[in-house]
């Protein structure tokens, strides 16, 4: 026997359809919905950032050979952007974990709280946390016969501007950009970075006992080798064996043990324990930027 729904149910269904599919349901709406769903699907990846969904979709379309994890990682690394093209100004320049590079700038007038390193530790000033950590590191090195001295620590916006402008009189901009930051983009302006013993490739600092000591021990004091060999495509800078950045012990150990640049560490969503302990926001529409840690030691495909 042929079954049919009672009329009142049929009318209810019709009303429901009419309510959910109003007259303005033009053909483009499903496409928009598909696009929106495609974009939100990026959030299934633990290190996807809610404010970059459109960029993931665009980068995936331009690079169909990449898997989704690689798309998210590369966009998190800003590899879909041209260096210095429309950079962000960082939200919290005084954060000890602030990322400053060719895509992230400090405000022009930002000056951190500073402390002089002291005559026994070389020249310049750093943020108190970084200054204290550097002195402890230098003291420990000295006990093993290694001398570590600052040759350049905090640099103001205007100092960096003069420095970069001078390089531009000697080198083409493409070349200058591989070893000198444009003003506002220098880690030295954070007061958390310093050059140790030299700042010249001619000295081959990478072949010295001091460099070997730093590579092994810097993370214990919260410092990372910021511009390592083989990372130029990510950091934007050639190998600088003398340039160290204070990020705190936990992050420094994660970066140095896993051979990650700071950009990679952040792009993978490897946030410290205390930040993960913060309960996630209840609304699914506003997930935290890095809600879950990625398994330690996961290989990175770039
Ligand atoms: Zn430097």
Structure, described:
By secondary structure, the chain is α+β, with helices and mostly antiparallel strands. It has 2 domains: 42-80, no CATH class; 86-260, 2-Layer Sandwich (Muramoyl-pentapeptide Carboxypeptidase, domain 2), CATH 3.30.1380.10. It has 12 helices and 8 strands. It has helices at residues 7-20, 28-40, 53-62, 68-76, 128-143, 157-170, 173-176, 209-217, 232-235, 249-258, 262-267, 273-276, and strands spanning 88-89, 104-105, 115-116, 125-126, 150-152, 193-196, 223-227, 240-246. The strands form 3 sheets. The chain has a 4-stranded antiparallel sheet with strand order 5-6-8-7. Strands 1-2 form a two-stranded parallel ribbon. A two-stranded antiparallel ribbon has the order 3-4. A hairpin with an 8-residue loop joins strand 3 and strand 4 (125-126). Helix 3 (53-62) crosses helix 4. The longest helix is centred in the middle third of the chain and has 16 residues, at 128-143. The model is unreliable at 1-23 and 284-302 (pLDDT under 50).
Describe the secondary-structure layout.
Layout: H1 7-20, H2 28-40, H3 53-62, H4 68-76, E1 88-89, E2 104-105, E3 115-116, E4 125-126, H5 128-143, E5 150-152, H6 157-170, H7 173-176, E6 193-196, H8 209-217, E7 223-227, H9 232-235, E8 240-246, H10 249-258, H11 262-267, H12 273-276
Parallel strand pairs: 1-2
Antiparallel strand pairs: 3-4, 5-6, 6-8, 7-8
The structure holds zinc ion.
Give the % helix: 25-40%
For the residues shown, what is the average pLDDT?
Answer: 86
The low-pLDDT segments are: 1-23, 284-302
| CATH topology value of the largest domain | Muramoyl-pentapeptide Carboxypeptidase, domain 2
How many helices does DSSP assign?
Answer: 12
> What composes the largest sheet?
4 strands, antiparallel
**How many β-strands, per DSSP?**
8
């Amino acid at each position: 026997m042929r079954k049919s729904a009672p009329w009142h149910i049929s009318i209810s269904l019709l009303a429901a359809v009419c309510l959910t599919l109003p007259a303005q349901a033009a053909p483009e709406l499903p496409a928009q919905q598909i696009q929106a769903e495609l974009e939100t699907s990026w959030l299934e990846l633990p290190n996807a950032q809610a404010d970059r969904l459109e960029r993931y979709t665009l980068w995936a379309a331009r690079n169909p050979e990449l898997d989704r994890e690689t798309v998210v990682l590369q966009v998190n690394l800003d590899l879909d952007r041209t260096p210095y093209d429309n950079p962000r100004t960082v939200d919290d320049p005084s954060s000890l974990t602030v990322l400053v590079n060719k895509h992230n700038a400090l405000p022009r007038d930002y000056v951190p709280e500073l402390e002089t390193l002291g005559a026994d530790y070389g020249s310049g000033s750093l943020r108190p946390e970084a200054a204290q950590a550097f002195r402890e590191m230098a003291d420990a090195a000295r006990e093993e016969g290694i001398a570590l001295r600052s040759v350049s620590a905090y640099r103001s916006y205007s100092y960096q501007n003069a420095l970069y402008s001078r390089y531009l009189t000697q080198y083409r901009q493409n070349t200058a950009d591989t070893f000198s930051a444009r003003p506002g983009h220098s880690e030295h302006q954070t007061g958390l970075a310093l050059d140790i013993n030299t700042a010249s490739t001619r000295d081959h600092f990478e072949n010295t006992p001091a460099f070997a000591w730093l590579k092994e021990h810097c993370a214990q004091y919260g410092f990372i080798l910021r511009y390592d060999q083989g990372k130029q495509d990510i950091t934007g800078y050639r190998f600088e064996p003398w340039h160290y950045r204070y990020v705190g012990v936990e992050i420094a150990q994660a970066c140095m043990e896993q051979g990650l640049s700071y950009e990679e560490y952040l792009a993978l969503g490897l946030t410290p324990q205390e930040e993960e302990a913060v309960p996630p926001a209840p609304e699914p529409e506003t997930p935290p930027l890095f809600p879950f840690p990625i398994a330690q030691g996961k290989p990175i495909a770039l």
